[in-house]
Amino acid sequence: MVSFLLVGFLGTCLVWTFEHFRRRWYALLAIVVVAASVVIIASISMSALTLLGAESWYDRQPWEDVVLFVMMILGMAARYVTKEIEDRRRRIDELRRAGDPSKPGLQFDSWEFAYPLFFSVVTFGALLGQLQNSAISLANMILSFQTGFFWQTLLKRNYER
After folding, report:
1. What is the pTM of this model?
2. What is the C-alpha to C-alpha distance for residues 53 and 61, in angstroms, rounded to an integer?
């Protein structure tokens, strides 16, 4: 109960801070990092997690799934960035054909970035179905990242069935 209150309070503070420091992204980034650290430390200290013994904390449930889910989300984010780089290359080629030597920047769209997150649960379910076990291994981490990177292909394949 206390952890939910803490998360809610920090979320409210983050929303207020975002509205207040809208133009100062570095202040917002620092506050987000501190808030995330507080939430992580509070959740670990309030849980029944024991860090002693032969098994590492990340080799237990639900932490194994959390690590794989984060790797999948990072794969989705990497796919968005690579897609934006490809679009930028296309725009540069069009500008060069028109005689303009300028190079446009990446066009970050927060809704396009968030779009794969709406399907993250479906994609993660497909990932867990592919894994022999959810233990943290290099192969499972790479497969999680790859699943996130190719989330559209996986979703189309499951939809066609």
Report:
1. 0.61
2. 15
